[in-house]
Structure formats: C-alpha cells, structure tokens
Design brief:
This protein is of the alpha+beta class and 844 residues long. The chain folds into 5 domains: 242 residues, no CATH class; 27 residues; 166 residues, no CATH class; 132 residues, Ubiquitin-like (UB roll) (Roll); 228 residues, no CATH class. Helices cover 19% and strands 21% of the residues. It has 16 helices and 36 strands. The strands form 14 sheets. The chain has a 4-stranded antiparallel β-sheet with strand order 22-30-29-23, with helices on one face. Strands 31, 32, 34 and 35 form a 4-stranded antiparallel β-sheet that branches. The protein starts with 238 loop residues before the first helix and ends in a 36-residue tail after the last strand.
C-alpha cells in the first residue's frame, strides 16, 4: 500500500502533494528576468542531487515548445549557511499549460531511505522570495492513484528519457522543443531565472522538518506519449508494466479460481470413489454416498417388513391373497444399485449432483411369476371371439363376435411393485383388466357370406385336367366341408379351402385319372428288417385344386377350373420311414393251439395285424385296429368263456393272439395301457401274463412310449394234426433287457362239480381247475451293464374252473288229446315163447 506523507501536525497530506527535500539552486548567470522554460533536466552540481519526488497529476494540456535558447549555466555558488526550504510541488491548472514541466522520477525499485539530516548546503543561497516566480497553481482535479517514488541523490539518467543531454553552461544553444505530453505528468511553472529542476518553496510554505522520506504513493500514469513513463521525458515503465503477463491480476485471479475448483474436484472424486452418487433415491430411500454393498443392504432391510405382509390382489370381480416372501417376491438390492448411475467424472454433473435427486426404479424379482396372478388371469381372461361363418351341411350363417378381456400382466406387475414399496398391506391392489377388441365385426362377416360363401355353395365346380384326360366334379358338399374362415391382417374375414379336408371329401376321385401313391413300408427278410421305399402317385393335386376353387367361389354357376396332373406324395415317404429308427428286433413271443376253429380265427387276426406301424407316442388298440370280427371278415365260431363257462361264438379263440401280443409288449418294455386276464387259468398261457379280448367289450391297448417307431410282424404256422402256432415280433430300437419273475401261487380255490342239462347238445364238459392268486414282476435292466433300472408288478386272481358234466335230457312226450278217437282194432299178437320177456331198448 502507498504511504501518504504526513504534515507537521500529524494529519495526512493529500496524494497530490509530496514534500521532497530541497535541492540547492545555482545562481543564475544572468540578471533576473523572465527566462523561457526548458525541459527539466539535472544540471552539474557540486554534489549529487537529493531525492526528488515526482508527482503524476491527471492529464494536462501539452506545453508549447520553447522559443528562446537556454541561458548558460552560472558559476557554482558557495554553500549557503543554512539549508534551503523544501519546495512543494504544485499541480498546474488543468486549462493553462505551463512553459516547462517538472522532471518525473521513474518508480524506484525500492523505497528511498528516510532523510536523516537536513538537505546539504548549496553553492549559493536561493534568491529572495520576491525574485521567485510564483508557481502556477493546478486546477482542481479528481483524486488519482499516485505511483511516484522518491529518487536517490545519485540517480543517473532516467531510463526512458530519450531527450539529449542539456548543452554546456558556457555554450548557449537552442533548447529542443519538448515532445507532446501524453502522460498524466503535471506541468510546473518556474520563476524567471530559476533553473529547471529547482523547486523553490512558495512564500507561504513553512520549512519542512527533517523526517524520513515517505514512500511514494502509487497512482495512475499514462503509458503512452513522449512525457509518459515510457516516453523520452518519462520516468520509465512502472512496476506493473514490467511484470510478465502471467503475473498480472487479470490472469492470476481466474487461474487461482481454477486451481481451487480443481482441487475441490479432485478431493470429491477421491472421497466418493465407487460409492453410489449423492442424492440417489430409491422409492424414497436415499442411498447416495453409500458403498454398493451397503446401499443394497440398506434397501433390503428397509423393505423387508413390507414383503412379509399379506396382500390382496383384485382384478375386476376376482380377488386372491398372496404373501410376497412366500411366493418368491423380493427386492433385489444389488440389481437396484447396479441400475443407479455410476460416479461421473464430469465436473458439471458432480456439481449439479449437490442440488438434484436421481430417482432409480427398484428391481423386484419374482413379480411376474406370482401364482395368484396366474389364477386371476384364468378367472378374468376371456378371449375375443371374431365374427365368423358356420356351415350346417350346406347352409351358411353368421356367428356374431364377442369382446374379450385380459389381465394386463405388465401393468399388474407395476401396480404390485408400487404397493409393496409404498402401499399399505390393508389396501387391496387393483390390477388393470384390458378389453380385447375383436378383429372381425358382424357386418364384415355378413358381407363375406353374401358375396363369397352363398354363391360358392350354389352349385358344384367341374375340374378338368390340363391334358384333358380326366374330368372330376367337386360337389357342393365337398366344398362346404373344406371351407375355412380366419381373420385377415386388414380385419376382413378370409375364406380358404383346406386341401386335406377337400381330399378326404373327394376320396378316390382325385386320383382316378392317375396312379395311386404307395407308402414306404417295412419287411422282414431273414430275421432282419428293412425299408421298402415309397412310390409317388399322379393325379389332381389337392393343394392346386384348393387354390383354384377359392378363386371361383364368388362366380355364378356354371363354374369350372383346369388343374394340371401332378405328383401325389405318399403318406409315409422313404425318408420318414428311415427316420423312425426301426432297425432291430426288440421282442418276440409264440403260443400254440390244437383247436382247428380257434386256429382259423387266430390266423385271420394275425394277418390283419401283420405290418402294423405304431409311431412314437401312439396307442395301439386291437379292437380298433381290426374292426368288426364276423363271418364277413372270415371268422368262424369257436370256443369262448361266457359267464364263467365255455361256449361258442364267431371269432372265438383270438384271445390267444391277444395273449401273444401282450407278452411281446411285456418283453419289449412298452407301456401297458389296458389288458384283462381270463376268468380262470388256462394252462397253455403263462400265469399272470395273458390277456383276453371280446369285441365291443374287452380290449387290449398298449402305448409306444419310445422315441422310435414300432413295427409289428406276425406269422401263423399250422400244425399237421390241427391247430398251429402264432408268433408276434416287435421291431424298433431296443431300450432294455426285460426279466419276468413269477411269484408263488397262493390262495388256492377248489372247483365245484356241476351237472349241466344238455337238451340240444350245446353243453361243453369242463375239467375242474383250482383257482389261485399270482404276481408277475417285470424288471427293466440296462442293456450295457445289466443293472436294474426299475420294476413293475402285475397281480392276477384266477377263479376256480368248475367241473361240468353234461346230462342229456329226453325231449318231453307229446301230450294226449282226450278227444281223439280210440285206435282201430287189429289182429291179436302171436304168443311168444315161454319164459322170454321182451327186451326194451334203452334210450340215449
């Protein structure tokens, strides 16, 4: 800070007044008269000049150049007896420029030392005050900051003074005109005969006491112009001007601010680390500033109580209760924290984080899988039913639509989430139910019925092959059976023709003009199974015909279409057969019979079943596969068991085939769906591993539960004395080794002996057989290791077979008519030999 000089009474002098020590004034060499002012410059002296404080006044008018030469310097004056009085520098009037300006001292590097003693004597006393020219007073001007500093006595040429040195004292010469004054240095007038640089005191100024020289105050100064600090008459550049640009306040201040802000930013980054950003809020819980693990634990703890309560879900009229914790619903704290924004390195983002909150949606697991939601959806959801067309026979009608509804599962999950986090368990959670609009309206369906369906069912369509070799008529019934209706993308009801249903309705008419296709099949040669390739047929392609029919449905009768004959693929192609995995024998079983009639029926049913193919997952039914078993199919009457007794019926004896097939199923490891054993034990069958069938009442069913197909191969071998043997073999991919373990026979029951009247010869005698209980176990073993995989038991309880003895019964005698006439008299019989009696004939 600049120090202001003090007055003798201790008050502070204004900045524009500086009291410097006086310098001895040389005696003028000419009589006192008005001398033209010259530029202030130091002249020769007996000793160095004392420090002189220069004053920087506000800008003043430029003084005119001098017109007379500078007088020669006077002879040195002897020293005065007493010090000269200090001269106060006075600011000139702002409006009138003065002829000469006072020398302006440049800023000193260090403050001048305080004067310890009065000013040194000068060569000659100063002229009387009366001879001193009064100093022109300065005009009033605004206060300004002074940068003037004291100048030491031994000060040399001022840096920046560009004016030539003054001429010698003995050689008068013209004084160069001063350069225009561009700075704020004040002009000072000198009295006539006063040397430039001499500062005589004004008459009223008291002598200044010896005191330390005050530091020159700093102030404004002009940097331009000849008399500025950097000009020829200036005092040199100021301290501020000599500073490097990077040390100026205009640069240092923002740099310092950036350093402070950068330091604060760095500290904030280091302190925050990987913590959750400040002001991060989850459902009202602030987790900002916590580590991820601590934030996750905080969230799970805060909401734990709410997840343990019971809530009620309500969707329309339906409602269900659920326990979030029991149903696997929980807040996933780690995933919720992971969804929060990471610590940003953007300074602006970190700064705004102090004032803004970051809302993070909580992550709940298990909300979409709440069992109560599935139950509510089953009760609430109702599929929309589009308007369509129904055909009864050949009569079409419109079926009106029905709007549907559905539980909005996504919105329901949001509602449940909000209730679990901020709701009250006592309040039901209402779940939104949406209305599902129909795609086809009733009016649209009616339009299709009028424009397409009605004319389409008005008459048959004639189909001609492209080569003219065949002509087929598609009847109205076939068209009606194959029509389909579905909503289109534009909301219209689309009419189509199903090729499969059309082919079924047309039957053999489509292939009558071509050749029928042959399916791939399997055959066994030398105990090995192989695929016989399929053969494509030719005929009218049902798919091509269906496409052509759709185009002519709206047309009026008569209508016809032309279709090329094309290949008709087989129902089972070679590739499909090979993909079934039928490559080896998986089981086989054989039984025998001695009855010729039963043998006939067994042969017939074996021939019907031979070549059966059971695809993966299909169930085989013997009654369904063979259909009716009557005389028309080649069956004959044979023994059956009816009511626990033997009798005869057409198709009897095929239970032996059923028993043979059941054992093939048993040892193949296939699934037994249904079988029934005989009422009493028949010795030619394995106990507990046999089956009976009866058309329309008792069936044999088994399922192919493998991933491959099962091919059934049967054979009948007649015996020379009657009867024969039947064998059933299954081919596929073997899965198990099967063992059969028959348990002990228990709980024997004795047969009864019965006599059965036989009036017509239909009675069949029976030999009594004991009844018993038996259990058979099927054990499944691994093919490679033989280890047991599982087992299955079959329990059977046989009734005792009664012993039947047939008793012939004579036909009843004819009744006697009492009204009948008596028989006619005849000749008397001849007398017999004596002692002989007629022997009557025994009946039966």
């Amino acid at each position: 800070m600049p120090q202001h000089p003090q007055s003798v009474d201790g008050t502070t002098q204004p900045d524009d007044t500086v009291v410097p020590p006086a310098r001895p004034a040389p005696e003028p060499s000419r009589p006192p008269e008005a001398a033209p002012p010259t530029e202030a410059s130091p002249g020769p002296a007996a000793e160095p000049a004392p420090p002189v404080a220069a004053v920087e006044p506000p800008p003043a008018a430029v003084a005119p150049p001098a017109t007379e030469p500078t007088p020669p310097a006077a002879e040195p004056t002897p020293p005065a007896a007493q010090p000269s009085t200090p001269v106060a520098a006075v600011q000139p009037a702002a409006k009138e420029p003065t002829p000469a300006t006072a020398e302006v001292a440049p800023p000193a590097a260090e403050p001048a030392p305080a004067a310890a003693e009065p000013a040194p004597p000068v060569a000659e006393p100063a002229p009387p005050a009366a001879e001193q020219a009064p100093v022109a007073p300065h005009a009033a001007q605004a206060p300004f900051s002074d940068d003037t500093r004291p100048v030491p006595r031994d000060r040399g040429p001022v840096p920046g003074d560009q004016s030539p040195p003054p001429p010698a004292a003995t050689e008068p010469g013209p004084t160069p005109a001063p350069a225009p004054q561009w700075d704020n240095t004040a002009d000072i007038r000198f009295a006539p005969g006063q040397a430039p640089g001499d500062q005589p005191p004004p008459p009223a100024a008291p002598p200044a006491p010896a005191s330390p020289a005050p530091a020159a105050p700093t102030g404004g100064r002009a940097l331009d112009g000849p008399d500025g600090p950097d000009g020829p008459g200036g005092s040199g550049p100021s301290d501020a001007a000599r500073r490097p640009w990077w040390r100026r306040p205009a640069v240092l201040t923002p740099v310092a601010a950036l350093v402070v802000l950068g330091g604060a930013y760095g500290v904030d980054v280091l302190v925050a680390g990987d913590d959750v950003p400040r002001n991060t809020v989850v459902a009202g819980v602030d987790i900002g500033g916590l580590s991820p693990d601590a934030a996750a634990a905080e969230l799970e703890e805060r909401f734990q109580e709410g997840f343990a309560a019971e809530y009620t879900l309500r969707a329309g009229e339906a409602s269900r209760t659920f326990l979030p914790a029991a149903d696997g619903v929980a807040l996933d704290g780690a995933e919720t924290v992971a969804a929060a924004p990471e610590q940003s390195l953007n300074p602006w983002t970190r700064l705004t984080g102090f004032f803004t909150e970051h809302e993070v949606d909580p992550v709940l697991e298990g909300v979409d899988a709440i069992p109560a939601l599935d139950i509510l959806a089953n009760e609430v959801d109702l599929a929309a039913v589009d308007a369509t067309i129904a055909i009864d026979g050949t009569t079409p009608s419109v079926v009106p639509p029905a709007t549907g509804r559905a539980l909005d599962r996504e919105a329901a999950a949001d509602a449940i989430t909000a209730a679990l986090l901020t709701g009250d368990p006592a309040d039901p959670i209402d779940l939104p139910v949406e209305e599902v609009a129909v795609a086809v309206t009733e009016d649209e369906a009616q339009q299709v019925l009028d424009e397409v369906v009605t004319p389409g069912l008005a008459a048959p369509v004639v189909v001609t092959s492209a080569d003219g070799s065949a002509e087929v008529e598609v009847p109205v019934e076939a068209i009606a059976a194959s029509l389909t209706f579905s909503p289109g993308e534009d909301g219209r009801l689309t009419v189509g023709v199903d090729p499969v249903r059309l082919a079924e309705a047309m039957g053999d008419d489509l292939t009558a003009s071509g050749t029928p296709a042959q399916d791939a099949r399997f055959e066994v040669v030398g105990g090995a199974v192989r695929v016989v390739p399929s053969v494509e047929g030719t005929g009218i392609d049902p798919a091509a015909l269906a496409t052509e029919l759709v185009g002519v449905l709206p047309d009026p009768a008569p209508r016809s279409v032309t279709v090329d004959l094309g290949p008709v693929p087989a129902d089972l192609t070679t590739a499909e057969a090979e993909a079934l995995g039928i490559r080896e024998e998986i089981s086989s079983f054989t039984t025998t019979t001695t009855n010729n009639a039963s043998g006939t029926n067994i042969r017939v049913v074996a021939e019907e079943v031979d070549g059966a193919l059971v695809l993966p997952g299909e169930t085989f039914s013997l009654n369904t596969f063979t259909g009716p078993r009557g005389t028309a199919q080649g069956y004959v009457p044979a023994n059956v068991i009816s009511g626990g007794q033997l009798s005869t019926a057409v198709g009897g004896g095929i239970s032996q085939f059923a028993t043979t097939m059941f054992n093939a199923v048993f040892f193949a490891g296939l699934e037994d769906v249904y079988h029934k054993t005989h009422t009493f034990y028949i010795s030619r069958y394995p106990a507990g591993r046999e089956a009976t069938v009866y058309e329309g009442q008792i069936d044999l069913q088994w399922r192919n539960d493998t991933d491959t197909g099962v091919f059934v191969d049967t054979s009948w071998a007649p015996a020379a004395g009657g009867g024969g043997s039947v064998t059933v073999t299954f081919y596929g991919t073997k899965r198990y080794e099967i063992d059969a373990v028959e348990g002990a026979r228990t709980n024997y029951r004795e047969p009864r002996s019965l006599e059965k009247p036989d009036a017509d010869g239909s009675c069949i005698p029976q030999t009594g057989v004991r009844g018993f209980d038996v259990t058979v176990t099927r054990i499944f073993r691994d093919l490679q290791t033989g280890a047991e995989i599982r087992r299955e038991t079959f329990s059977t309880s046989y009734s005792a077979e009664d012993s039947i003895r047939c008793v012939p019964v004579a036909p009843p005698a004819e009744p006697v008519d009492p009204n009948a006439p008596p028989p006619a008299a005849g000749p008397a019989p001849a007398a017999g030999p004596a002692g002989r009696r007629p022997v009557g004939r025994r009946a039966g």
